[in-house]
Structure formats: C-alpha cells, structure tokens
Amino acid sequence: MRPIIGVLALTAASMSGPRQSTQDSVTLAITDVAVVDVVRGGTLSNQTVLISGNRIVAIGAASNTRAPRGAQSLNATGKFLIPGLWDMHSHAVMFGRTSLALYLTQGVTGIRDMGAERFAAAKAWRDSVAAGQLLGPRMRIASPIVENQRWLAAVKRMGEAAGTPWRMYERYGPTSADEAVRWVDSVVALGADHIKVRNWPSPDISRAIVERARERGLQVVGHGNEPFPRTGVATLEHGIWPPLQGSDAARDSLWRQLAANGVAMVPTLVTWPIRLDPPDTLIAKLNAGRIPGLQYVPRQAREQWRDQLLELKQEDPTDWPTIYRGEMRNAAEMHRAGMTLLAGTDIGAPLLVPGFSLHDELGLLVSQAGMTPLQALQAATILPARVMGLADSLSSVTVGKLADLVVLDADPLAVIGNARRIHAVIANGRLLTRGALDRMLATAEAEASAQATHYPLESPVGLRLYNVVAEPATLHGKRGLQLTLAPGVRTGPVFARIEGLDFSNGVIEVEVAGAPAPGAPEGARGFVGIAFRLLEDDRTYDAFYLRPTNGRAEDQERRNHATQYISQPDWTWSRLRQETPGKYEAYVDLLPDEWTKIRIEVRGDRARLYVQDNAQPTLVVNDVKSGGHAKGAVALWLDSGTIAHFRNLVVTPEDDTTRPK
Ligand SMILES: [Zn+2]
C-alpha cells in the first residue's frame, strides 16, 4: 500500500499546476477557500491551499487541486483565508505565558516583543516556539531597553522617596557614545532581533547606537519621545511625545520627513482610550470584571494592571481628552502623509488582553486613522513583514511562504471586525481548528480563575477544629459539613480554621445554615458566619455572622440585628451595639436552618457582607478594626448553642490595593 499512497500524493500535488513549488509531501490542505490578497487587495474564490510542514507549497483552483490522501484537510467552503496577524508592540513576557495561547486564538501568529525586563525569558520563548516545543506566535525580541540617564535617575529618586525602589532589571542607560557602541555589540551577541530605545539619550549617543546597529545588521526601534532621531530608526512607537504643539503645516512636514526616511509608526491607538477614565474608575471596572476577555487574564497580570493604574494616580493632572483627540488626529494625518502605520498594542500595559486588543487596534486604524479594511489588514500582515525584512518568507498567502494563516468565517475586506470571526488558525504549519482554539480559551479561563480556591466542605480534612465537632451532613438534599459545639466546652474559641490559607484581601463566598441547638438558651439565634484575618493566637479576628432566627421576628429591633460584624477580642457585638448602635448590624431576610449564600468582600479596611444574591451589600463596614493591612486565616464560625452547616467555600484572594505605592 505504501508506494500507492505515495504516488497518489504526487499526482494530486502535480494537478495543482504550475504554481507548485515543491513535491514535498503535503501535510495540510485548506480546501475551497477564498484567498485574501493582502498585497494587491481583492480575493480569489474557491482555492485550495496545500501546506507541507510549515510552508505553503501550492495554491490552485479547488476544482482541480485535490488534497492528497493522508494529508489533514480543512474544508473551508464559504470561508476566507488571510495571513496570520502581527502584534508589533508587545511585552508578552510581562503579561505572562497565557499570552501565547491567547494570541493564537485571536489569529495573531507573530509578535514583536518590545522589551521584557527579562531578556532571557523572551529569548527562551522565541527559541522554544521556533523549535516547536512551545505553542505560540512567532517572536522577534528586543534588546534590553535603552533609557537615558536623566530618566533612570528620576525613577530611582521617586522610588526611594516612596519607599518602593523599582528594580530596573536590565535597562541600559548609556553614558558615552563609545560605551554605547560596545553595548550594541553585546546585544548582537545576546541574540536580540532589534534594539529598543524608550527614552532617547543625547543625539550623539543615539547616533552612535543607530550607526553601530546598522553595521551589525540590527534594527533600532523606539518611542517617539523627543529627542528621537528623524532617520535611521525602523519604527517609532505610541506617536510623538510630548504631544506636538506646532501648526498643521509643521506636523505635516514631520510626517513627510519620516515617511521619506522610511520610518514607520506603531501608534498603539488602543492604549489611549483608557486615559479617558480616571484610574479609580478603571480599577472598579477591573474589579467588576467589565473588560472583554478578562476571564482569560491570569491573576498575576490583573494585579500588575491594578498596580499600574494606581501608579497613574501619582501622575500630575493632564488633559487626557485633548491629548487623545490629538493622537487620533495625528494617526489620520500620518496615514494621509504616506507614513507606514503598523498594528501594535503594548500588551503588558493595563487592560489590554493579548490578541483581543489587536482587533481593537485594527478597528481604531479604520475608525480613527481613516484606513480601509484592506489597509488595516496590511498594517498587521504584509507591512510588518516588510518593515522587519521578513516579507520574502512571511505574511501573504503565497507559495513558498511560511504557513502562518487564519481562516475566517466572513470577509475582512468588507468589515475589519470580520477578522475576529476565526474558524481556524495555522501557526507555522500547525492546524488549530475552532475546537482546538476553544479548548485553549477554556484552559486559559480555568487557569485564570484557578487562584480561587474551592473547598467543598464535605469532610473535616484540612480544618483545624477549636471546641467544635465537624461531621459530613446533608441538609435539604445538599451535602456539607455540620459543626456543633464539642461536649463539655464552656469557654474558648468556637470555630474551624481552614489550614494553609493566608487571607488579607479578596472575596469569601460560602453557603451557611444556622439554627439553635436543642436545649440552647433563650437568646440563641443560630449564630453562623465566617471569621477572617484570624491570627495564630486564635483569638484575634474579624467576622461577619448571621442571626437567622431574627430574620422574620415580629420585633423590628430583633430584625435589625439579623447580621453582625465583630472584631475580636476588642470589638464584641455588645460593645459595638452599646457604643455605635446600628452601625455594625443590619436587617436581611433570613430563615433558620436554610442554606443561605453569603459573600464577604474585604479590601483594606473596607468590608462588605452580601446575603443571597443581593446586588447591594447588606452590611457595609468602612473601618475594619483589624486595619488596612491585616492578614490571617479564614475560619468557619459559630457560637455556642448553634447547629451550623457550611458548604461550598470559595476564597479568592486579591492583592493589597491599599499598600502605599
Ligand atoms: Zn511598550
């Protein structure tokens, strides 16, 4: 059988006609697809594209180009094929490894890293992806970032003053032209693909870097921060800073000068809209999960965003709406003046989700910079390849090129948003079907939420018990744990500490039920709740708890005592009620011995108790007695005279948003 299959493969390949470039065995066929020509525009319908390994080896009419038997085949009738997209400004290493999968799921098969703080990590990613050991987009990586001495000194001063010295791992601040030349040589030896400058040194040092890099065959790319060189750099990033003050004519002449000198711009338009909201609004959005794609963002990246947003608050007041309008106008002007604009996002900056934000950027290039959908597509495909000198092997659907491709459900030349409608991605020849992409997203989502620890509470394992008996029990058909006072106990703490959980800020969710135990004293109410920030002394903690039998009492005062906040040992319920009546107690509808969902949010010295799925908190505490920075365990809490049930505890710690920056 073997020889026959071989012959069939050859026959099918030769049927594809004169554009056949090799007779390598075909590994993947994309059949009956409309091929989008990003170089000239337009589409060629009903094509079949044959791929061998990681190269496109043939493209021909579907009617006479057959997928050889044995090759993987993707029927793409009614679909559109484009080259994989590039994100030309990424700090993916800062975001974390999930970025690689997220990029691919959004059709981004190439990223230009713009500085990682950890060069070795970026290099390891790039090389592992290239070797097929790591699934991710093709990477071009930046040198350690160049800054000027003035900026480095200012950051050092600010950090020391604030008590949060920033470790500028690998940033380089040249002190002389000679030294900069030697540094460029060292970067070549390191294996960087380009040199990234953030704050330009003096013109003579900058010139030395640019010239030495050219001699060594390395591109220089950098922020458009004054005094940036007008020539010799491949790309400028994020527009011009400080914002241009000059006349329309002065701007136009700068754009034309840059265009004539072959300097492209990566405007990262998507980074500007977040400047329109105050940092606190953005943090609130972040906390509420109101960012598209946020469910895929790892906790560590979300925390980094929150820190970055808090840092924005330290900035001097700036008229961002005016700057925003200026940046959008500039992008349109640059485009009209003939500058090459490239699609990039600045992944690593707050609220930008890898891949998703590149599509946002393409939308902005159309709506703000005045591009056609074709031009926006070019800004993420053939133009990046040309600017980086890779166009011979990448970024158009052409025989002989590397197979970085995206199959779309709808025509991106009609509406650029159709580039989001991804049916399949081919990354370096490897097919990722819609099913595979969905599994990658599901994995990212599971990892992102894995930080929430779930305790089903179906056995006492993992609990340290203090004067309580804990046993598995079913209440109203739901399994959980029953906690009661241990026999003979008169004094001391009554709770079950969750072992191995250190909690300061975050969200605690649990279902509880409480009822007075048989023979309990007259005042028993079925006290049940959650203690948090419990110290090792076993007596210092904060707690919210319920008094279920008060929920539907006929006495309004008792109803008002349905929920309670306390902080042991100093702030008992009786002291709080005496000194600040009504402040730490509140009414909510409750029934004894019924499962009741509670959710406790703790952030610094603010805590909120939510009961059932009420949108508004039942009890608001703005002066948590343990203070803004306390840390400790979480415990299942009850009082003597109670039969308590607990199930489904979920603890989601957050970073300490109140620590001084
Ligand atoms: Zn950047």
Description:
The protein has 661 residues and is α+β, with helices and mostly antiparallel strands. The strands form five sheets. Strands 1, 2, 3, 4, 5, 13, 14 and 15 form an eight-stranded mixed β-sheet that branches. Strands 16, 18, 19, 21, 26, 27, 28 and 30 form an eight-stranded antiparallel β-sheet that branches. A hairpin with a 2-residue loop joins strand 2 (43-52) and strand 3. The longest helix has 17 residues, at 320-336. The protein binds zinc ion. Zinc ion binds at residues 89, 91, 114, 346.
Compact overview of the structure:
The protein is α+β, with helices and mostly antiparallel strands.
Q: Name the average pLDDT.
A: 90
Report the principal-axis shape: elongated
Unreliable stretches: 1-22, 656-661
CATH superfamily caption of the largest domain: Metal-dependent hydrolases
Helix/strand class: alpha+beta
Number of strands: 30
Task: Tell me the CATH topology of the largest domain.
Answer: TIM Barrel
Sheet-strand content, in percent, reads 25-35%
Number of domains: 3
Distance between the termini: 70 Å
